[in-house]
What does this fold into?
Amino acid sequence: MGKGYYSQPKKHEFTSFEIQIALGLMCRGVHLLGPEHNKKGEVIEYEAKHKREVYTTFATRMNEILHGEDYAQDISKKDITALIDRLTAEHKNLFGSHGYLDRNGYRRLTRSINRAFLSNRKQNYDGSKQEWEMGRKKKVENELRREQGLPTIEEEEAHTRAREEVIKARKEREAAENEEQLRIFRAEREKEKQKEMQNARPASASILKGWLPSIERSGVQATNTLSTAAGNGNNETISASVLHSLLPSIETTNTPQSAPSEMPREDVRRDEYGRPLSKPRVRANNSRFFDTSRPSH
It folds into this structure.
């Protein structure tokens, strides 16, 4: 036996077509352990029963697609295993625990997956959910927004904050204007009430009585200032007839007005036995009797 008989087989160099076949099988989940890795709930087409059979199943399926029944052209399981490990490590954004395949839910090779795979970007993602939520999700979404001609997430958030600030400032301005209008309305209403109270205040009887003799002597209208007399701030002209209508109970003499009288007291008449009569008589201040009772028996 020659020395070359024991030499190691040459490492297989995969073509782009073979890599595409491997990518399609990985999209179907053939390289996974079982249905527990499928978080979307779909049934995996090629399910491995044991961990040791995972790569064997993948290599068998890949050789059947590439060479059919020509077993002499089969690629070794070792090379296919190395290919799977390399693709999984270099493209964690696709095959990670929270990669594009898990988020997409379609177990087939699509144009978006193929484009992401062929871009061959060194992003150094670990494929975890935390990494996706902490920054990679926003970056991917911003790229999609730029392709569609939409603003990025940061620009939209800034626009939303600016709009909220404008709305808040407008509400505060409207509230201040309403408060100022309410204050002005209350002040005007208070002035109107004070003016109505001043206009409704009557002139005192003593002052009007002092004007009456001069008006009667002249026989014409006399002009007097009610602002000095009654304190209402208005200048008016009052005639004698008007004063007489205002003062029906004031006498035209110069005698001072007497103090207000007390309440009339009740004088009860009694009969010879000391019992009060049925109808009492009322005594006025001037000792005159009104509504006299019946004559005594």
